[in-house]
Specification:
2 copies of one chain form a homodimer. Chain A is of the alpha/beta class. Helix content of chain A is 37%, strand content 18%. Chain A is built from 8 helices and 11 strands.
């Protein structure tokens, strides 16, 4: 199974590397990190640089595509980005296209989620809806008939990819991977979802993200800046 | 807070990058990836290459040190490795030293877990005990008085680092990070621990790892090879 994990400048690292961890433990996978050009890609924190091993032009026949997100995706869908064109191009012959977090915005922008139920980071439901998908508060949404999977924010990529392994292979393989990576999560708080966290914390974070988005897009639209 | 995440050839990526994801969302952190030399480090799958941004010689005053694991640690503790010497050297002036998975073997080999309760990947309890620690089946073990934290296998680095943020800063910051990364885990099976997985699956995996370890160490001990 040829897996392509998409990278781009300012990607959120765990969006890409949670799925990578699951697939790296899955037998029979051959994983590439694919970007506009082969070479270094730095994440949204700025401290992590990863190597893209194949380019969009070179890798056109992946079986499975993982699309991570990051705050920058809000800008990528407005300005256009080679990753979006590549998703359109490879989708017809791929088996599975899977997004994590705001990677769903890139998938939607490529027209792959039109009129479909999909999930993304909880703070990006409106952005996803604006691109033609039907956002739902779910951890993972699988469209088996279309070969499309979407996962919620950042850490959901691990759950999403275990589901993908169940679909691609079988339950027992997914169980072995889960045991191998000792995925028996024990988060310190039950606050990882906007439905469970203190409402004022959700509101503050939402307002902060809206302001960050405004700044991110300001120079694209001088009227509102 | 100056954070050092240790890297070495054949590291298990998520051991390092789960903690990174949490700390990258934590305000006030300045994260470096530290290795024997500045430059590329490839993980145990072989598909991911990350950049070490500082060297052990250069970075000697981290506040927080994250020590990931990987199967190769069994060999590193037998042959010796610059990472182990560096852990010994920086421990006295650091605030927190934290391991994920078999990173605990490197911490123990540096003498930092002598006679202390500690956790590691479930298949490495005997290896940890042989290095002088007291292995316990826990997700995270915190020794506040010593500034030492150990986490269980691979994915436990996320839980471990959220606990570390609670210790370093406060509960509310950890909650904000958890909400930001939408860490509301929903694994597909309840089999991520050897106490929960089918016993024959645990036994098969344990036997496979013992055989892999034998091969990994074979050329170091010609009598048993």
């Amino acid at each position: 199974v040829k897996v392509a994990i998409v990278l781009f400048d300012k990607v959120t690292a765990l969006d890409a590397l949670g799925p990578y961890a699951v697939l790296a433990f899955t037998p029979g996978t051959e994983i590439s990190f694919v970007a506009e050009k082969v070479g270094p890609i730095t994440d949204d924190n700025g401290a992590l640089t990863m190597q893209a091993t194949r380019s969009f032009d070179d890798f056109t026949d992946p079986d499975v595509v993982i699309v991570p997100g990051g705050f920058i995706t809000r800008r990528m869908v407005v300005t256009g980005h080679p990753a979006i064109d590549w998703l359109k191009k490879v989708q017809p012959q791929s088996t599975w296209m899977a997004s994590v977090c705001t990677g769903a915005l890139l998938m939607a922008s490529a027209g792959l989620l039109d009129g479909m139920r999909a999930t993304t980071h909880w703070a990006a439901y409106e952005d996803l809806e604006a691109l033609g998908a039907i956002p739902e508060h779910e951890r993972v949404i699988v469209h088996r008939d279309k070969g499309i999977v979407t996962g919620a924010g950042v850490s959901a990529g691990i759950d999403m990819t275990l589901r993908l392994v169940m679909e691609m292979l079988d339950d027992q393989t997914a169980q072995r991977v889960q045991l191998g990576m000792e995925y028996d999560p024990q988060p310190p708080f039950d606050c990882g979802s906007p439905l469970k966290a203190p409402p004022e914390m959700v509101a503050t974070m939402r307002a902060g993200m809206a302001e960050s988005k405004r700044k991110l897009l300001a120079d694209l639209n001088p009227v509102t800046s």
